[in-house]
Amino acid sequence: MRTIEISAADLFNAGRWRVEFFTDDNSHNIGSKWPAVRIADIVEESNTAIAPNDHEDEEFYYVGLENVESVTGDTVALQKCGRAEIKSRSKVFGKDYVLYGRLRPYLRKVFWAEGNYSVGLCSTEFIVLKPIKEKVLPSVLRAILASEAIAKQLSRLQIGAALPRISSSDFFRTTIPLPPLKVQEEIAKKLNVLKVERLRLKTRLIENPAEIDQVVADLALA
């Protein structure tokens, strides 16, 4: 049985009375042969936020929660935006950053800025992470954070009823299993193979109805 002593000052400063807030770093709940590390120890948080009008580029990528697919992290209708299209202050991210959707963490919306994302803006509902590459690869971090096991742990720490969120402090003190870099490199290769296959199958799902329509059209014209 685990026990922990909490001072009255810490209790009142936290403003929450849930046991999980003080005790649940999830390290005892995740079964893994790899050591558990705090998220705070393998990433740097970027809190830089600017108004869209302060952005140097006339057009830029803006990532909202609606632009990130649950679980896979694939983009959904993501396009470059003009300054006038974004109405509020936004967080800044760069290439290879990982964006964690803190609103409704059970949705598992985690985006890896892979490719042509030199500088972009995103919703403040994301926790913006710059992976420390000497410790964790971005693609592996994204996959771990979007996994069902970690999502369950983070969901236990969410606050709010109508719009449940996880706080940055709760997020960064959470622990995740992390293999050494050589193992991560192998995992990254496997993840890439699966991604290529998934995108191919998605393309086929889009093409299939059009092909059916064409078959019917050819039949009608025959």
Structural description of this entry:
There is one protein chain. This protein is α+β, with helices and mostly antiparallel strands and 222 residues long. It has 2 domains: 12-179, DNA methylase specificity domains (Adenine-n6-DNA-methyltransferase TaqI, Chain A, domain 2), CATH 3.90.220.20; 180-222. 34% of the residues lie in helices and 18% in strands. The chain is built from 6 helices and 11 strands. A 5-stranded mixed sheet has the order 3-6-9-4-5, with no helix packed on it. A hairpin with an 8-residue loop joins strand 7 (98-101) and strand 8 (110-112). The longest helix has 41 residues, at 181-221. The protein is globular.
Strand arrangement, largest sheet? 3-6-9-4-5
Count every beta strand, where a strand is a DSSP E run of 2 or more residues.
11
Number of domains: 2
**Named CATH architecture of the largest domain:** Alpha-Beta Complex
The quaternary organization reads as single chain
Average pLDDT works out at: 83
- Unreliable sequence segments: none
Which class do the helix and strand fractions yield?
alpha+beta
Summarize the helix and strand pattern as letters. HHEEEEEEEEEEHHHEH
A few lines on this structure:
With 222 residues, the chain is an alpha+beta fold. Helix content is 34%, strand content 18%.
